[in-house]
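Input sequence (296 aa), recorded before submission:
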Amino acid sequence: MTDSPPVRDDDATPVGHDDTVVLDRRFSWRGRDVAWTAFGSGPPLVFCHGTPWSSWLWAPYARALAGEFTVHLWDMPGYGASSKDPAHDVDLGVQGELFADLLAHWGLARGTGQPHVVAHDYGGAVSLRAALLHGAAYASLCLVDVVALRPWGSPFFSLVRDNAPVFASSPPAVHRGSLEAYVATASHRGLRPDDLAALVAPWTGEQGQAAFYRQIAQADERYTAEVEPLLGRLDVPARVLWGTQDTWIPVDRAARLAAALPDADVRLVPGAGHLIQLDAPVRLATELHAWLAARR
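Predicted structure, token format:
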């Protein structure tokens, strides 16, 4: 296990996250409308976001790597630009199965162009379930501050999950205030107002507020418990990348996860919280490029 070099001046203050990528394509899956896009050239590279995030977090990294890879961005159903139908389940079991089918839709199923995958937060559990339970295959897997091992979920997350109907009925102003306060705790360095606004925007309004509490209510550790005994079967090189100041998913999970995987190492990023994309953008970009370039 190794730490990254000391933090450079580039990462000393919050950096703007102004790159916007439009998810201009749609994949229909069991009534759900999945927003996605792809661009660039080279080997396939897929980014998976977590909760309560969207592909927006990965957009600048996708842009930066599009000169060497064909990058794919997508929003899970219930998130971002994808459909938020209250009748549709959005749990990790659904998302893992969907991801395997989405890869097949892209022509990236086992034996037909296996992609590199970079996953954050819930995206870790989604990508691991797709591989270990639904036959997805990857060229490599980079797991960034991921949900993978129990226990997971911040105290606020657990409180909301256990009382979702109460929180869902909050007045819009109260909901927005608690949402902004919650999201802000994912950053160690502090969020720019524009970045905070972009992160909370999908969860506001009548539809967004309901969707926010619905996805938390359906969070269940049984979906990670199901794959934990199978982690030793993951036949793909993996990197576990973690911010040392992650208060949502503590850094001790990094070593535990790498030890459970047959071919994995760990890189730690000092001074970064759970939103490592915003806390340490230069360092994260450097780490991702080095990992992926070595496996092209």
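Checked by second reader. Residues 92-105 form the longest helix (14 residues).
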